[in-house]
Every structure is written in C-alpha cells, then in structure tokens.
C-alpha cells in the first residue's frame, strides 16, 4: 500500500504542476478534456478491467449526468452542486436497478444489452426536444461557483476537473487494493470459483456497475458546466467505443493505465481531423492492434518492451565480450 501512496503522490504532484509547464488556453482546454476522459476511463476500467463485465453503453451515463445537471441548474434554477449530487445518485440508482437483469448476461449478450441501453438514451436526448433541445442541443448552462470563485476560465476548470479526477483515482486505487477489489478480480478470473468461495458475485457486479455509472454521471456534470452546452453527438455510440479503446490501450485492470489511454485518445483526434467521420475506423484498428500485440496495454507493454530492448543489448554485449 505504501508503494501505491507514493505513486499517487507523484501523479498528484505532476497534475498540480502541469499548468506551469503546459501554459496557454488551448493546452489547458485539452487537459481539461483529458481529465474528464480519465474519469470515464477509470469508471469503465473498474467494471471491465477489475470485475470483467463489458459495457458499450457508458456514454449513456455520461450523457445523463450532463443533461440532468444542465437541465436542473438551468431550467429549474437548482444550485449546480446540488444538481450534480442528485443526478449522480439518481443515475447510480438507475444503474443499480437495471444492473440486476442486464448483468445476468455474459459476453457478447451483455455487450449487446448495454449497447441497446446506450442507443435508447441517445434517442431520448435527440427526440425529447421540449426538455433536451433535441439535435440542436441545450445551452445556457451556468459555470460552477465556490463562494466568490467562479470556474469560468480554462485554468480554473483545469483545477476543478482534476480535483475530481484525483479523488476518483484515490477512491479507485483504495477500492482495487481492498477486500472488495480482490473479490472483483476473483469474479473476473473465475466467477464460478468465486461463488464457491462465498463471494456474492451478482450483488458485487451490480454494485460496481452502479459506482461506475455514478462516476460517469459526475464526469458528465463537470462536462456540462465547463462547456455550458451539451448536444446528443457527445454521448453517442462512438463515445462508448472511444472509452473502451482508452481502457484497453491504457491497460485493463490498471487505474493509471486509464489515464494513459485517456491522454492518448484525447490528443489523437487533434491529429485525425482530416479523417472526419472515419476516425472510428482508426480507433477500431488501434484496438485490434493493441489487443493482439500489447494485450496488457501501455502501462504493462512499455516496461515489457523496455526489458526486451535492454535484454537484447545485454545479449549483444555478452556476445562481443
């Protein structure tokens, strides 16, 4: 556990000092999105990487958080912090309720069920024009405030979002190293064996599904109050695929790997603008390549590659000697 605390402290220090190195509004804005995507990737990694339950519908929870917080704080004049809290709890409760029937499924059946859930939510965002604004989106969402401090600049939003990310990472690391985290890994590796050993696999799967949904909802609320505008395309199937790609590329079962995946996949679109609507093809290809050649993701693949390179150098040095 001491090793984990040191890793977390180094990670937090790098995050706090990043604005001193990467100055400029554009870079700050990109890093804000890296933070939001990190929260989403960590949420999905808890479900997929630790508990072994795939989901292609997490963009729905992200969207429910964004629209819920935006509508409550704008249309009904709720305090944004209260709106975020209520929406996170409601989305968590909804995920808990639908998790019981959905998580009875396994493999591609589970993937299809979560995909269907995501599509239904996306259609609601598009068609419920009176509430969500439909395809035109929903605007006028207020920035978050903390006393006299208004989070209305890229630098302020950076520290706001990354404060939540650091809290999310700390929670996830502690959970992963706890008795519950070990139970998640047991379910992931052999669910039948875990049940035999007394693990309540069904309840734990639903609980981690609900927790994952709540984190996504909080990320969605932050997105809404940072952007002050939300629209359905930001919560479609493509986003779910991107999240899955982030988790696989970063490393399944690695919290810090989620950050690496989010960082890479947030920066890549800046270089893929020429592909327009075909960027999803690139993500699919990247996912296949990573799964085949680097199944442990970047967080495990890079050290393995380094060891192989240094091992080859040592062998060559020994041959010359």
Automatic annotation (TrEMBL):
Assigned keywords, A-Z: Cell membrane, Membrane, Transmembrane, Transmembrane helix
A GO-annotated cellular component: plasma membrane
The source's domain of life comes to Bacteria
> Major place of localization?
membrane
Q: How does it sit in the membrane?
A: Multi-pass membrane protein
- Extract the GO molecular function terms from the UniProt entry: branched-chain amino acid transmembrane transporter activity
- Cell compartment(s), UniProt: Cell membrane
Query: Where do the TM regions start and end?
Result: 33-52, 59-76, 82-103, 110-131, 158-176, 208-231, 243-268, 280-298
**Would the keyword Ribonucleoprotein be found if you checked this record's keyword annotation?**
no
Coiled coil (UniProt feature): none
- This one is known as Amino acid/amide ABC transporter membrane protein 2, HAAT family
Native organism = Trichlorobacter thiogenes
The organism that produces this protein has a lineage beginning with: Bacteria, Pseudomonadati, Thermodesulfobacteriota, Desulfuromonadia, Geobacterales
